[in-house]
Amino acid sequence: MFVHHCTVCDTAQLTFDTQITGVRPVPGGYEATFTCWCGGEQTFLSEGAAAAALELAA
Questions:
Q1: Cβ(42)–Cβ(9) under 8 Å?
Q2: How far apart are CA 53 and CA 58, in angstroms?
Q3: What number of H helices and E strands is found in the chain?
């Protein structure tokens, strides 16, 4: 479980594993897709994946 700030309902929500709809490996970690409590589809990048994405963009 983790806390994520939803871009649809603009609130911080506690997200449980039952809300996760997919996980895939990406450079530095993983990317998870899940459904917020409001019904909005969201994406979460693990800490290492987020850092790798920033390095790729630079």
A1: no
A2: 9
A3: 1, 5
Which alpha helices (DSSP H) does 1-58 contain, by range? 47-57
Q: For residue range 2-42, list pLDDT tens digits in order.
A: 888 999 999 999 999 999 999 999 888 889 999 999 999 99
CA distances (Å), origin 30, targets 12, 44, 50: 21, 8, 9
Query: What are the distances in angstroms from CA 34 to CA 39, 42, 55?
Result: 9, 5, 25
Q: Tell which phi-psi region holds residue 23, choosing left (phi > 0), alpha (psi between -120 and 50) or beta.
A: beta
Q: Tell me how far apart the alpha carbons of residues 44 and 58 are, in angstroms, rounded to a whole number.
A: 20
